[in-house]
Amino acid sequence: MQTVLKLALSFVLVKIIAVSTGPAGLSLFNQFQTFVSVLAIFATAPVSIGLVKYTAECSENDAAKAALFSTAMWCGLATSALCALLLEVFANPISRLIFRSEQYSFVIQLVGASNAFAVLNVLLASILNGERDFRRLMLANVCSNLLAVGLSVLLMLANGIYGAMWAAALIAIGFTDASPTQSIRDSLQHIPPTSRLAAEITTVLADFEAGLTWDTTMDKLDARWRDTSWVHVLPNAGALTVPVKVAVWRGSASI
Predict the structure, then answer these.
(1) CB-neighbour burial class of residue 85 (10 A; exposed 0-12, middle 13-18, buried 19+)
(2) Burial class (CB within 10 angstroms; exposed 0-12, middle 13-18, buried 19+) of 117
(3) Which of 8-12, 88-92, 124-128 is least confident?
(4) Which of 47, 90, 187, 204 sees the fewest Cβ atoms within 10 Å?
(5) Residue 166 near residue 197 (C-beta atoms within 8 A)
Protein backbone atom coordinates (compact mmCIF):
# COMPACT_ATOMS: atom_id res chain seq x y z
CA MET A 1 0.00 0.00 0.00
CA GLN A 2 2.79 2.39 0.95
CA THR A 3 4.63 1.75 -2.33
CA VAL A 4 1.47 2.19 -4.41
CA LEU A 5 0.63 5.46 -2.64
CA LYS A 6 4.17 6.76 -3.09
CA LEU A 7 4.12 5.94 -6.80
CA ALA A 8 0.72 7.60 -7.21
CA LEU A 9 1.82 10.76 -5.39
CA SER A 10 5.04 10.89 -7.41
CA PHE A 11 3.05 10.61 -10.63
CA VAL A 12 0.76 13.48 -9.57
CA LEU A 13 3.69 15.69 -8.61
CA VAL A 14 5.62 14.99 -11.82
CA LYS A 15 2.50 15.63 -13.90
CA ILE A 16 1.90 19.02 -12.27
CA ILE A 17 5.54 20.02 -12.69
CA ALA A 18 5.51 18.94 -16.34
CA VAL A 19 2.36 20.95 -17.06
CA SER A 20 3.58 24.01 -15.13
CA THR A 21 7.18 24.20 -16.31
CA GLY A 22 7.39 22.05 -19.45
CA PRO A 23 10.06 19.45 -20.35
CA ALA A 24 12.95 21.74 -19.42
CA GLY A 25 11.54 22.40 -15.95
CA LEU A 26 10.85 18.71 -15.39
CA SER A 27 14.42 17.86 -16.36
CA LEU A 28 15.79 20.40 -13.87
CA PHE A 29 13.44 19.06 -11.19
CA ASN A 30 14.73 15.52 -11.73
CA GLN A 31 18.33 16.70 -11.46
CA PHE A 32 17.54 18.63 -8.31
CA GLN A 33 15.67 15.67 -6.81
CA THR A 34 18.65 13.41 -7.50
CA PHE A 35 20.97 15.93 -5.84
CA VAL A 36 18.77 16.08 -2.72
CA SER A 37 18.62 12.27 -2.54
CA VAL A 38 22.41 11.96 -2.80
CA LEU A 39 22.79 14.63 -0.11
CA ALA A 40 20.44 12.74 2.22
CA ILE A 41 22.41 9.54 1.71
CA PHE A 42 25.68 11.33 2.45
CA ALA A 43 24.26 12.88 5.62
CA THR A 44 22.64 9.72 7.02
CA ALA A 45 24.67 6.78 5.68
CA PRO A 46 27.17 6.83 8.60
CA VAL A 47 24.45 6.12 11.17
CA SER A 48 21.19 4.93 9.56
CA ILE A 49 22.15 1.30 8.80
CA GLY A 50 23.97 0.80 12.09
CA LEU A 51 21.09 2.42 13.97
CA VAL A 52 18.64 -0.20 12.69
CA LYS A 53 20.97 -3.04 13.72
CA TYR A 54 21.83 -1.78 17.18
CA THR A 55 18.27 -0.66 17.96
CA ALA A 56 17.14 -4.24 17.36
CA GLU A 57 19.96 -5.61 19.55
CA CYS A 58 19.19 -3.19 22.42
CA SER A 59 15.42 -3.61 22.31
CA GLU A 60 15.30 -4.76 25.95
CA ASN A 61 17.88 -2.29 27.31
CA ASP A 62 16.39 1.19 27.70
CA ALA A 63 19.64 2.79 28.93
CA ALA A 64 21.60 1.46 25.97
CA LYS A 65 18.89 2.63 23.58
CA ALA A 66 18.91 6.12 25.08
CA ALA A 67 22.69 6.37 24.63
CA LEU A 68 22.42 4.95 21.10
CA PHE A 69 19.69 7.37 20.05
CA SER A 70 21.55 10.34 21.52
CA THR A 71 24.77 9.42 19.72
CA ALA A 72 22.94 8.85 16.44
CA MET A 73 21.17 12.19 16.71
CA TRP A 74 24.37 14.12 17.37
CA CYS A 75 26.18 12.32 14.55
CA GLY A 76 23.30 13.08 12.20
CA LEU A 77 23.22 16.74 13.19
CA ALA A 78 27.01 16.96 12.77
CA THR A 79 26.88 15.56 9.24
CA SER A 80 23.93 17.81 8.35
CA ALA A 81 25.84 20.83 9.68
CA LEU A 82 28.80 19.84 7.52
CA CYS A 83 26.51 19.55 4.49
CA ALA A 84 24.98 22.95 5.25
CA LEU A 85 28.44 24.53 5.46
CA LEU A 86 29.58 22.96 2.18
CA LEU A 87 26.38 24.00 0.38
CA GLU A 88 26.72 27.53 1.71
CA VAL A 89 30.28 27.79 0.40
CA PHE A 90 29.70 26.05 -2.94
CA ALA A 91 26.11 27.19 -3.62
CA ASN A 92 27.02 29.06 -6.81
CA PRO A 93 28.93 26.26 -8.59
CA ILE A 94 26.33 23.68 -7.54
CA SER A 95 23.55 25.93 -8.85
CA ARG A 96 25.40 26.26 -12.16
CA LEU A 97 25.83 22.49 -12.33
CA ILE A 98 22.16 21.70 -11.68
CA PHE A 99 20.27 24.73 -13.01
CA ARG A 100 22.93 26.13 -15.39
CA SER A 101 22.62 29.45 -13.59
CA GLU A 102 23.71 31.02 -10.29
CA GLN A 103 20.34 32.69 -9.74
CA TYR A 104 19.07 29.65 -7.82
CA SER A 105 22.01 29.41 -5.45
CA PHE A 106 19.68 30.43 -2.60
CA VAL A 107 17.75 27.19 -3.24
CA ILE A 108 20.94 25.20 -2.67
CA GLN A 109 21.57 27.14 0.54
CA LEU A 110 17.99 26.49 1.66
CA VAL A 111 18.46 22.76 1.09
CA GLY A 112 21.56 22.85 3.26
CA ALA A 113 19.76 24.75 6.02
CA SER A 114 16.82 22.33 6.04
CA ASN A 115 18.84 19.14 5.64
CA ALA A 116 18.79 18.54 9.41
CA PHE A 117 15.05 17.83 9.23
CA ALA A 118 15.62 15.21 6.52
CA VAL A 119 18.31 13.61 8.66
CA LEU A 120 16.01 13.46 11.69
CA ASN A 121 13.31 11.90 9.51
CA VAL A 122 15.70 9.14 8.37
CA LEU A 123 16.86 8.54 11.96
CA LEU A 124 13.26 8.22 13.12
CA ALA A 125 12.54 5.71 10.35
CA SER A 126 15.66 3.73 11.29
CA ILE A 127 14.61 3.61 14.95
CA LEU A 128 11.08 2.41 14.08
CA ASN A 129 12.58 -0.18 11.73
CA GLY A 130 14.95 -1.42 14.43
CA GLU A 131 12.08 -1.58 16.93
CA ARG A 132 10.12 -3.54 14.32
CA ASP A 133 7.25 -1.13 14.74
CA PHE A 134 6.30 -1.46 11.09
CA ARG A 135 2.82 -0.03 11.54
CA ARG A 136 4.13 3.31 12.80
CA LEU A 137 6.93 3.22 10.22
CA MET A 138 4.42 2.85 7.39
CA LEU A 139 2.21 5.56 8.91
CA ALA A 140 5.17 7.95 9.23
CA ASN A 141 6.25 7.33 5.64
CA VAL A 142 2.73 7.79 4.28
CA CYS A 143 2.23 11.02 6.24
CA SER A 144 5.60 12.42 5.15
CA ASN A 145 4.84 11.62 1.49
CA LEU A 146 1.40 13.21 1.67
CA LEU A 147 2.79 16.30 3.41
CA ALA A 148 5.66 16.70 0.93
CA VAL A 149 3.49 16.35 -2.16
CA GLY A 150 0.70 18.49 -0.67
CA LEU A 151 3.05 21.35 0.15
CA SER A 152 4.78 21.10 -3.23
CA VAL A 153 1.49 21.23 -5.13
CA LEU A 154 0.16 24.06 -2.96
CA LEU A 155 3.26 26.19 -3.42
CA MET A 156 3.34 25.61 -7.17
CA LEU A 157 -0.36 26.18 -7.77
CA ALA A 158 -0.56 29.22 -5.50
CA ASN A 159 2.55 30.74 -7.08
CA GLY A 160 3.95 31.40 -3.62
CA ILE A 161 7.43 30.17 -4.50
CA TYR A 162 7.42 32.11 -7.76
CA GLY A 163 6.29 35.22 -5.92
CA ALA A 164 9.17 34.96 -3.46
CA MET A 165 11.65 34.40 -6.27
CA TRP A 166 10.29 37.36 -8.26
CA ALA A 167 10.26 39.71 -5.25
CA ALA A 168 13.83 38.78 -4.29
CA ALA A 169 15.01 39.32 -7.87
CA LEU A 170 13.18 42.64 -8.19
CA ILE A 171 14.69 43.99 -4.97
CA ALA A 172 18.21 42.95 -5.95
CA ILE A 173 17.95 44.18 -9.54
CA GLY A 174 16.42 47.49 -8.47
CA PHE A 175 19.79 48.65 -7.14
CA THR A 176 21.57 48.21 -10.45
CA ASP A 177 19.13 48.69 -13.34
CA ALA A 178 18.76 52.04 -15.03
CA SER A 179 14.97 52.30 -14.58
CA PRO A 180 12.08 50.67 -12.70
CA THR A 181 10.66 49.38 -15.98
CA GLN A 182 13.91 47.60 -16.77
CA SER A 183 14.00 46.16 -13.26
CA ILE A 184 10.54 44.64 -13.71
CA ARG A 185 11.43 43.18 -17.08
CA ASP A 186 14.71 41.74 -15.80
CA SER A 187 13.00 40.27 -12.73
CA LEU A 188 10.72 38.24 -15.01
CA GLN A 189 13.77 36.26 -16.13
CA HIS A 190 13.91 34.67 -12.67
CA ILE A 191 10.47 33.00 -12.80
CA PRO A 192 9.02 30.53 -15.33
CA PRO A 193 7.72 32.49 -18.35
CA THR A 194 4.66 30.23 -18.54
CA SER A 195 3.60 30.86 -14.93
CA ARG A 196 0.48 32.83 -14.07
CA LEU A 197 2.65 35.28 -12.14
CA ALA A 198 4.70 36.14 -15.22
CA ALA A 199 1.50 36.45 -17.25
CA GLU A 200 -0.04 38.89 -14.76
CA ILE A 201 3.00 41.15 -14.59
CA THR A 202 3.32 41.09 -18.37
CA THR A 203 -0.36 42.00 -18.70
CA VAL A 204 0.06 45.07 -16.48
CA LEU A 205 3.11 46.17 -18.44
CA ALA A 206 1.20 45.73 -21.70
CA ASP A 207 -1.73 47.81 -20.37
CA PHE A 208 0.53 50.77 -19.68
CA GLU A 209 2.34 50.42 -22.97
CA ALA A 210 -1.09 50.56 -24.62
CA GLY A 211 -1.65 53.96 -22.98
CA LEU A 212 -4.08 52.97 -20.22
CA THR A 213 -4.25 55.18 -17.13
CA TRP A 214 -3.75 54.22 -13.50
CA ASP A 215 -7.50 54.01 -12.84
CA THR A 216 -8.22 51.93 -15.93
CA THR A 217 -5.36 49.56 -15.20
CA MET A 218 -6.47 49.10 -11.60
CA ASP A 219 -10.06 48.54 -12.70
CA LYS A 220 -8.91 45.77 -15.04
CA LEU A 221 -6.78 44.32 -12.26
CA ASP A 222 -9.75 44.32 -9.87
CA ALA A 223 -11.92 42.66 -12.51
CA ARG A 224 -9.39 39.89 -13.13
CA TRP A 225 -9.01 39.05 -9.45
CA ARG A 226 -12.44 39.97 -8.09
CA ASP A 227 -12.90 36.49 -6.60
CA THR A 228 -9.33 36.22 -5.27
CA SER A 229 -8.16 37.39 -1.87
CA TRP A 230 -5.72 40.30 -1.91
CA VAL A 231 -3.30 38.25 0.14
CA HIS A 232 -2.73 36.14 -2.99
CA VAL A 233 0.56 36.80 -4.76
CA LEU A 234 -0.95 37.34 -8.22
CA PRO A 235 -3.08 40.46 -7.58
CA ASN A 236 -0.38 41.78 -5.26
CA ALA A 237 2.27 41.46 -7.95
CA GLY A 238 0.01 43.22 -10.45
CA ALA A 239 -0.77 45.99 -7.97
CA LEU A 240 2.94 46.43 -7.22
CA THR A 241 3.72 46.79 -10.92
CA VAL A 242 1.10 49.53 -11.39
CA PRO A 243 2.70 52.30 -9.26
CA VAL A 244 6.14 51.56 -10.68
CA LYS A 245 4.86 52.00 -14.20
CA VAL A 246 2.89 55.13 -13.25
CA ALA A 247 6.06 56.65 -11.79
CA VAL A 248 7.83 56.08 -15.10
CA TRP A 249 4.82 57.36 -17.07
CA ARG A 250 4.87 60.57 -15.03
CA GLY A 251 8.63 60.96 -15.39
CA SER A 252 9.55 59.93 -11.86
CA ALA A 253 11.96 57.15 -12.77
CA SER A 254 13.87 57.51 -9.50
CA ILE A 255 11.01 56.01 -7.44
Answers:
(1) exposed
(2) exposed
(3) 8-12
(4) 90
(5) yes
